[in-house]
Amino acid sequence: MGDDSEWMKLPIDQKCEHKVWKARLNGYEEALKLFQRIQDEKSPEWGKFLGLIKKFVTESNAVAQLKGLEAALVFIENAHVAGKTAGEVVSGVVTKVFNQPKARAKELGADICLMYVEIEKAEVVQDELLKGLDNKNPKIVVACIETLRKALSEFGSKIVMLKLVVKVLPKQFESREKAVRDEAKLLAVEIYRWIRDALRPPLQNINSVQLKELEEEWTKLPSSPPKQSRFLRSQQDLKAKFEQQQAQGGEQSDEDEEQAVAAVDPYDLLEPVEILSKMPKDFYEKIEAKKWQERKEALEAVEVLTKNPKLENGDYGDLVRALKKVVGKDANVMLVSMAAKCLAALASGLRKKFGSYAGQVVPTILEKFKEKKLQVVQALQEAIDAIFLTTTLQNLSEDILAVMDNKNPSIKQQASLFLARSFRHCTQATLPKSLLKPFCAALIKQVNDSAPEVRDAAFEALGTAMKVVGEKAVNLFLADLDKLKLDKIKECADKVELPGGRKGAAGGAAEKKPGAKAAPAAEPPSRSSAPPKKTQTAAASKPSSGPPKKGKAASSAGGKTKKTSDSKEVAETELSPEACEDLAAGVLPASCLQQLDSANWKERLASMEEFQRAVETMDKAVMPCQALVRMLAKKPGWKETNFQVMQMKLHIAALVAQRGQFSKTSASVVLDGLVDKIGDVKCGGNAKEALTAVGEACSLPWTAEQVVSMAFAQKNPKNQAETLNWLANAMKEFGFAGINVKGFINNVKTALGATNPAVRTAAITLLGVMHLYMGAPLRMFFEDEKPALLSQIDAEFEKMQGQSPPAPTRFTKKAAAEEEGDEGEEQDEDGGGGGGGGQDIMDLLPRTDISDKISSDLVSKIGDKNWKIRKEGLDETAAVISEAKFITANIGELPLALKGRLGDSNKILVQQTLSILQQLAAAMGPGLKQHVKALGFPIITVLGDSKPNLRTAAMVTLQAWVEQTGMKDWLEGEDLSEELKRENPFLRQEVFGWLSEKLPTLRTVPGDLMLCVPLLFTCLEDRNADVRKKAQDALPTFMMHLGYDKMIKATGKLKVQNPNRTFSVPGSELLG
Q1: Which residue ranges does the record assign to the TOG domain (predicted)?
Q2: C-alpha distances in Å from residue 514, one per residue of 463, 519, 897
Q3: Per-state percent for the chain, helix, strand, coil, to nearest 5
Q4: pTM to 2 decimals?
Q5: Is residue 178 part of a domain?
Q6: Structural domain for 208, as ranges
Q7: 508 within some domain
Q8: Residue 88 domain flag
Q9: Among 359, 357, 394, residue whose Cα is nearest residue 829
Q10: Which ranges of 618-716 would DSSP assign to H, the alpha helix?
Q11: Cβ count within 10 A of residue 595
């Protein structure tokens, strides 16, 4: 064996590896002393022992092992590089320490595991302990459960991921060993302390006696939430706060108590169940059977399967279509109820994964609300409420608004009640003005409905909206309601209780501060985890940064104005001629009124001069605008033959509009005369000045619509040309917000066909200005014009290329104050084109509903076995979209049909499908958002195709879609990370290349982007050089949004193959 002197002279690290146990024991003792002496956590001395720490804990000699464990614990606590040893050391503790008879060894082993958790290696420790639960030695299993319990007790449920623990917990209750069952019971009690009733569903199938014992233990637990008592190295600020609270007697604020426990969704703790393969083989035949008993059998089979609370993701398209058909067309109300319940269960079991089917089902459910039987209505309500939680109100808005004018009162009532329930789950961020405005307009109509149940439902919906976003935000859209109705809405708002006991914004400014912190908790667990947008107040007070986005310039660019008393539109009844004369006599000199209709033009001129002086000095509050403009229209009125008098008259009309509370009623008196003089050589300038003043008082969209229709009702080409010229200039001054595109395009087409060249030229000039705001979609309206005329239009559009819409210099009085709020709130946060900025303009375009043209025959053709028939179906689809030009988001069952063709074996058809999807993006605009999940992600799948031309086409299609939808919907949820899991090098390099371009353009990203980080790290070491390159390009863009700390923490989940591998990142280094 040799003399001890042989190994006494060896260095410490060599002693630790010596074959003699005494040498190793001595080595461990000296290593312990050395570790305690080293002050610098980054000292190179630590590196010498990096590969030996596992041997410290797996020592075969029991005496030496104890000392090795002590040394390892000090190493892990103090060495900067200790984290790299976590996996192998904890694995060694589980297999070689937890089976030891000595309690001290097990205690040190548990301490080592907890120390790794403290140095940010919780995931690795948890994985190894969970592996230990499968060990055949019950001592090891007991020790692993006990260590997990200690980790949870000390670090809390935010650090220990309970989902994986709860998944294996029921199995421990089935163990033959009493010690394992007892320790599992203690762990279940500890878990219950942290997540309460969320633990019940996963344990519902354990032995009833054990469950009863657990129930008894759970009732003994204190009601106060548990607190984290041990902290990670990155949580030192929390540790200081905890110690301070302990020193002050352990008092904790309500806010801290709320944040002490991480909210756990029971759904997350459940294992998904795959049901598609378990469906009866004859289901689709039976569901179409003529006998209702057979259809009932088919639905009963599905009902049993869908009762599983969490379902595995899959292609549920055929099942959803079958259930939708029963709901919409089956005459048996019992079967309708069963199908609705199946849809509700599917939505609840799939959650966000059901979102891609929501758009197909919701219109059918809303229409079916015409059914009056209570059991059917309740089933439909359950279904639509469950479906709502899988998508967003924005995605469903078009379908809801479509039925708000339905003749059936039951449909209107239930649509409003659904809105009221949906609003409860919204916040100020998820219910912006752009979404609230059309809903309020539709609900205001229902408030005046003849059916009392429709009125009551509308009041409830408006009251709920008021509770959520605040009285001030909703009142903007309620100007036409009388006081009684407003009081009723406020009364409804007071009765509304929001989920989670959160406070709404209805309390006004005084409640905004405390309400701000409660808002994020309002979302149900199934909603998006994306960070909340700014509140209205914050958004409105912060000016927009960067250049105005296309289509938004009309409302977002330019200066701001202070809110004045003119913020409400002036409503005025039409006065009689006698009343107007009486009012005018009270503010104008008698001589002025007497000389208005004098035969001597000089007297009429003098009268106008007096009139002007009186208006200039008149108090705005007492100015009778309607009476004054009626005096101007008094004979000879707008037929005045003297140009000097007419110039004065037009100037006074402008002054009254600028200085008084000028209503649309007053404007109607003067507009006809102004249009009649707009083409006059001497008076045209004054007429345009007056029209602009009216536009400021009554809004440009309204004024322009009246003026253009009046001009084209005449046959005077000079007036028509000058009206179009005035409108082109006015658009630049006011911006494009609210303009009735459809109405103007019809008049412009008339002007383009005029025989007078000045009218045609003015029309083309106007189109050029409109192109500044609308961009390429404008041209689609004129594709059927003659080639010569179209070339002139194209030439005008070409002049506008590269130009941005000018900042507005004029504002409508009643809207000037609102501009601030609208601008901040409706800013595009997605970084894409149409997601927010372009939406306002694109929404102005007249759209065609093509759902009736997407027939079942067409869908069958697209899915036919014969590729020629499939191509024929695709050709017909392209023709339908092309003919409609601009379409609504309702495209029936087309999404699922096109999705199938993206995976077609015939690559020509895949290419054609991608072309149709590009066509769809241009035609549908921002409404495309609701099809991102169903149709958008299959485009990403095509990026993995081996053919370069298909990948190129897929990327062009993807960019076209993102331009309309923005990026948010693409980054939310698990869909993007699921695509990256395909391990396709082409797909991965294309997606990471795309993300590296898009992410830097975004201000915020959804938290779900974090799901892609492990795959990004994997791709950094991919065998394919292009994948590695694109992943490295994307890495800093991920870090820009997620932060360095989160990215570093995510590396802890990696299995380190080469601990010295370094990823180079601009500005920093990440150790893999």
Answers
A1: 1-227, 268-505, 574-806, 843-1069
A2: 21, 9, 49
A3: 70, 0, 30
A4: 0.60
A5: yes
A6: 6-220
A7: no
A8: yes
A9: 394
A10: 625-632, 643-659, 664-677, 684-698, 700-713
A11: 19
